[in-house]
Amino acid sequence: MQKILIVEDEKAISGVLVSILSDELSNYEFIVAEDGLEAYKLLEKEDFALVISDIKMPKLSGAELLKQALQLKPDTTFVMISGHADIDTAVDCLKNGAYDFISKPIDINRLITSVRNALDKGSLQKTNQHLKSENTTLKKKVNKKYQMIGESAALKKIQEMIEKVAPSDARVLITGPNGAGKELVAHAIHAQSDRSKGPMIEVNCAAIPSELIESELFGHVKGSFTGAIKDKQGKFELANNGTIFLDEIGDMSLIAQAKVLRALQESKVSPVGSDKEIKVDVRVLAATNKDMAKEIQAGKFREDLYHRLSVIEIYVPPLDERKEDIKMLIDHFAKTIADEHGTAPKQFDDKAVKALEDFSWTGNIRELRNVVERLVILGANPVTAEDVASFVRK
Description:
alpha/beta; Rossmann fold; 5-stranded parallel β-sheet; nucleotide-binding; phosphoprotein; Sig_transdc_resp-reg_receiver
C-alpha cells in the first residue's frame, strides 16, 4: 500500500487531516511526523506517494524540508500548508518544486482536490520515468555478439565514456591493439545512440584494395571503371540516418582520406564516375590499432582528417591490462561456444583459470576466445590446469 506523509507539529490539525483524507483515499496509508527533521528521517528510509507539510515547524521548517527532500529524492511530490503570514514563503516553495500550497484555515474541498491532483501528477511522473527507463534499456540492448564482458576499472571507464558520448553525434576515434574489442565499443555507441533504429554499416579499410576503397565508400556509376557493370550505392549512402564504422582507418590510402575528409566537411558524397552529389546524414565512428601521431609524422595519415575523426577518443586497453576480466570472459565464451556446438557448457577449475590469467595475451580477447574454444573441445570437464598446459602454447 502506498503511503502519504503528513508533517504537522499541531496534533489537532494532523488528526483532522488524517481523518478527512483517509475517508477520501482509503487505499493509502497515512504516516504523521511532528516536525521537519522527523519527516526527513522517514523520507531517507522509504518513498511516499505524497508529502503534505506545514511550513512553520520546529527543528526543520517545511521550506527547508522541501529543499532537502527534493535533493534526496527529486521526484517526491509536496503540498505545503501555510498560514497567511507564510504566503511569500509558500510562493517560494512553489518555485523550489512544491506542487501546491493550501492556506490556513484549510478549505476541505480545496485540500481534497489539491491532494488528488498531486497524486495524479506523481503517478504520471512515475509512469513517464518508467517509460524513459524502458527506452534507455532498449537503447542499451546490444546484440549478444557485441556484449562487453568484465568489471575491471578500465572497462567501466570505457562504458562511462560510451554513455556520455552515445547520445551526441560527435565523431569518435577508437584506438587500441588488435583483438581488444574496438568493434564492441563502436556497436555499443550505436546501440545507445538516437540513431540506433538506423543502419550501422561497417567498413574494414584494411581488407579493401586501395583502388576499390572509393567505390566501397562512395559508390560508383555503371561504366566508371572496368568491372562496374551497374550503379552501386556506397557505404556512406547506405548508412544514411545511421552510423558508419570505419575500422582500421589507419590503413586507408591518402587519396581515399582526402575524399572522406570532404564527405565529413560537406556531408555530401560523389559516386565514382559521377558529378552528382548525394547529401548524407551519417555519424562516423573510426578505429585503428596504429599510433596516429607516428602515422601523421610519417606522412601516411592526414592530420586534418585525424582531427575531424577524433572529436572524442576512446582507448581500449589490451587484455593484459585488464586481467581481472579474464574469469568472466572465460565463463562467457564457454557458454557461447557450448551453445554454438549444441553441448552443455564446460566448467574451468580455479587452477585452469589462474593458468590462463598468467598468460601474456598478445592477441587479446580474440586470442582468449580461440583458446577457450580449443579447451572446450579438447579438455576435460571441468577443464584443468593440465589441459591448459597440454593444449595451449605459451
